[in-house]
Amino acid sequence: MARVTPQRHRFSWGVALVAAASLLGACNDRGTTVAPDGSNYPIPSNLNDGLGGNHPASVDMDVALLSEMAREVREGERPNIHSILVYRRGQLVLEEYFSGTMLSDGTYRDFSRDTLHDIFSVSKSIVSAAVGLAIASGAIESLDQAVMDFFPEYRPQVGGSLDLLTIRHLLSMTAGLEWDESSSSYFDADNSHRRMMDARDPIEYVLTRPVLHPPGTVFTYSTGLSSLLGELIARATGDRYSEFLGRSLFDPLGIERAAWLPFYQDNVESAGGGLQLRPRDMTKFGVLYLNRGEWQGTNILSSAWVDESTTAQAPGGFYGYQWWLGIGGIGQTNRAFFRAAGLAGQHIYIYPDLDLVAVFTGNGSGGGPHELWLDYIIASVL
Q1: Residue 222 region, left (φ>0) first, then alpha (ψ -120 to 50), else beta?
Q2: Which of 321, 363, 14, 367 is nearest to 191 (CA)?
């Protein structure tokens, strides 16, 4: 079974954001110098883990563009990127690791394929998969099952205000509950995520937020809803969320290592942002969705669940079930591709029509990975 390790240090958002502000030098993990024409291109190793390994030309990608992208990161022109992996047509064609400071622990390191990396809100797309697996197992009846069926001990606090709230609303971020983790920094005392993180009972904190809108009518981004989903899965299956995830998703994908950051009181796993994975394992998850739930000939998720999760489920058309659709956030609805996205530059991009997956990890903000995805990786497809 996948080895899931709880990290014993408490995550410090203050330290993390100071670290994120620093500009980091970058270097190639393998120390290989790549010529502009790609003549010394470092082909990813085939580790027999399902990702393959081949030259970009073998899958009709422009090696010069991919080489230039790696050079820009390595030479500091694109700072704060720790890894880039590109997969197309059954082959990993780029696997680059650089140096930098991990956001969660403030430690500078040379990243490699064996380094567990913060993925932050990429965890949300993984909890979406876990919901699909729990439904398939019969532990959850349907997306329209009432959330309060799983949290009866909180009924005295919430009364009947959440009677209409369903699992579907949690997945699509349309619960209608008061929440704001976007207008202030994560270490600000007024940030809803920070308040949940510091609460004696984070589940109670989320469930007792005032109801501002009828469920299903307004999109409000909330790590609290994703955290509810993780605890809901634990209660439905009778296992810790991490144990269910390991058995049902990680083991079939051959993901042998993972870790959880204890955001709360060490008793609730942060399904919305606390997972650490290796970039190759993030890529496996992306390939699973690229192939509509199939991994090496085995159906892990139903194709119907993958399709439903990655089409518009929230008002505005930019969000599915814990997946972003298209280039950016609210109002940007190019749905040719979809992505899992996390704080400080963690991304899994999936473009089914191009048979393409890309993974980024890092410790920065802004549009760096987006620009590289659009201007180098998509553009390299011949």
Answers
A1: beta
A2: 14
pLDDT tens digits, 51-89: 999 999 999 999 999 999 999 999 999 999 999 999 999
pTM over 0.85: yes
Q: Which H helix or E strand runs over 230?
A: helix 223-237
DSSP string, 175-214: --B---SSSS-TTSTT-HHHHHHHSSSHHHHHHTSPB-S-
Q: Residues near 29 by Cβ (< 8 Å), separated by ≥ 6?
A: 96, 97, 98, 110, 111, 112, 113
Paired tokens of 20: 């994120």
* Strand arrangement, sheet containing 257-260: 3-6, 257-260, 275-277, 117-118
Q: CA-to-CA distance for 241 and 338, rounded, in angstroms?
A: 25
Structure tokens given for 362: 């890092």
- What one-letter code names the amino acid at 167? I
Bridge partners of 319, per DSSP, are 324
C-alpha 361/C-alpha 378 separation (Å) is 18
What digits encode the pLDDT tens for the residues 221-261?
A: 999 999 999 999 999 999 999 999 999 999 999 999 999 87
Kindly list the structural domains of the chain, giving each domain's residue range(s) and its CATH number in brackets, ordered by start.
26-114+316-378 (no CATH), 122-280+296-303 (3.40.710.10)
Question: What are the angstrom distances between the C-alpha of 242 and each of 119, 127, 208, 255?
Answer: 15, 10, 25, 13
Structure tokens at 98: 């650089």
Identity of the amino acid at 62: D
- For residues 298-307, average pLDDT: 98
The candidate with the shortest Cα–Cα distance to 136, out of 20, 279, 236, is: 236
Q: What is the DSSP string of 293-341?
A: TEETTEESS-HHHHHHHTS--STTS-B-SS-EESSSSTT----SSEEEE
Work out the mean pLDDT of the chain and round it to a whole number.
89
Question: Residue 315 to residues 161, 163, 309, 351, 376: CA-CA distances in angstroms?
Answer: 22, 21, 14, 22, 31
The structure tokens listed for 271 are 């399904």
Give the integer Cα–Cα distance in Å for 376 and 382.
12
**What is d(CA 168, CA 172) in angstroms, rounded to the nearest whole number?**
6
CA distance 167 to 308: 14
For residues 107 and 54, the answer to whether their CB atoms sit within 8 Å is no
